[in-house]
Amino acid sequence: MSRTLWTWGRFAGSAAIIAILVWRLGTSPFLHGVRTVDAAALAAATGIGVVTTLCCAWRWRIVAGGLGVELSLPAAVAAYYRSLFLNVTLPGGVVGDVHRGVSHGRDVSDVGRALRAVAWERFAGQVVQGILTVIVLLALPSPVHSSMPWVALGVLVAVVCVVPLVRIRRAGGASAWARIRSAVAGDIRHVMLARKAWPAIAFASAVIVLGHAITFLIAARTAGVSASLSTMAPLALLVMAVMVLPSVGGWGPREGATAWAFGAAGLGASRGVATAVVYGVMVLVASLPGAAVLVVSWSRRARPAERSEQRQLREGAAHA
Fold first, then answer.
1. Global pTM?
2. What share of the chain has pLDDT > 70, as a percent?
């Protein structure tokens, strides 16, 4: 019951944001966004998507290897494309990640550890994105610039609180909570912060954030926004931070955030919505290779089933 309410809540929240934007701004920003999407923007999104997906797959492979559930880079890239397509087209934004973890877990006969690898891989990306966002918003003017010193202080306090957790050693015979805390600390210490792992994880995550930000900037230019890079970069990272919220294929919170951010920056809420629409279309097109991966996966699963059915029919005819 709670899962159903959560699913419908995401639908209702996204629909409410879109409805409010249409009520306040009309449908013209949405239509303008769709009309301005061109082949050049879609080609750029697809090319950038190749780089960011490769980095995502590489990061996942590093984390999974640290947890002892190895996978090849080609398999990781294919699975990540499939995951991105499912995340973009299905509600919630995490269905593809869950599917990716479960599928990998079945391949290595350890679903729990594979899901941990996916969770830590996504968490690492969010941490790097958060750090880069705070740095840019501290350095450049934005609608939230005055609040950023307090945000930075909060991040610093969080880091200070995490350090004792990481230093915790595994202890036998402890309570369930202590065992969970010890396992988390062990994963952070031996996987995420391993000497050979964390530089690659940080680098891959930084490239991913840069790729998403460039895609957003291209979307803004495509929608007709001509503001300077120093103005647009903070807005891009600010909107990207909001995109982690549960939604329906990314729609809703993204448009609401861009409308507010662009309006507060003096660029116009309508242009913000148009930019968000262009960005959404670009991301969808960039994830389409994942649809091809899904089709290939389904066909491979269907062939053994079909062969088994044909074998049973032949055996039945022979017995008859």
1. 0.87
2. 84
